[in-house]
Amino acid sequence: MTDIISGELKPDLDASSADSETASAVTIIVCSSCRYPGTPAETFPRPGSALADATREAAADSTVDVRQVACLGNCKRGLSAAVLRAGSWSYIFGELDTDNAADLVAGAELFAGSSDGFMPFRNRPEALKRGLIARVPTAANLQDLK
Ligand code: FES
């Protein structure tokens, strides 16, 4: 059930995903087309592609799934990625660097183990604190936003 606590929606988690003993499936989506601000469009290979490859490698021994897309619509904010978990809010990050792959995986693992369905801020890697662009509720959460 979705609750509103302190004016903030809580994720719509089912009983199994709310169990702190059970990690929920989390997916990192990296934009493989991103480049650093101010660099020419003709820059290839794109740093975003390197971040996608490094993130996939960093997640090899984890349960975190890594996918890549051609654009997340965050093009002016440097290298970008999103972290998704079913039934939870989604997180969009920018201003990343090619060496933030392990940070993305660490944040995703933190999110997977979260009992309230939010990515905990306190232990989140610094790149995922300063680089947060937005968090987006699921469509199921919208009914409680009236
Ligand atoms: S090119 Fe990466 S967000 Fe658009």
TrEMBL record:
This is DUF1636 family protein. It comes from Neoaquamicrobium sediminum. It comes from the Bacteria. Pfam families: DUF1636. InterPro entries: DUF1636.
